[in-house]
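Subject: Sanity check before I submit

Could someone independently write out the structure tokens for this chain? I want to compare against mine line by line before I put it in a report. The sequence has 104 residues.
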Amino acid sequence: MKFGFSTIGCPGWLWKEVVSAAKDMGYDGIELRGIANKMYLPATRTFSFENCLRIRSQLEDMELEVPCISTSAFIFNEKYKAEAQKEVRDYVNLAGLLHPDIGG
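---
Independent answer below. Compare away.
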């Protein structure tokens, strides 16, 4: 069985702190929900295109996975449909950058 933790429990941590804690505590994965007090991951410098390629390599080297990337897209209300669709697309693109089997 594999174990992971969510960054929702450490909202102020920087990426370096997140991966260090995951490795030091023996986790296998990290669910991404926010980083450094920012909740919209695709808009952060941490998860820019260039950094995602580095992060993907770092995760492989550390034998860590990102099994889940969580979003707050509100898909159940027609009023927020366009906003939710954009958010979902942004997060799918982010997942593709971080996971070799999905994309990039």
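---
OP: Matches mine. For the report I'm noting this point. The longest helix spans residues 81-98.
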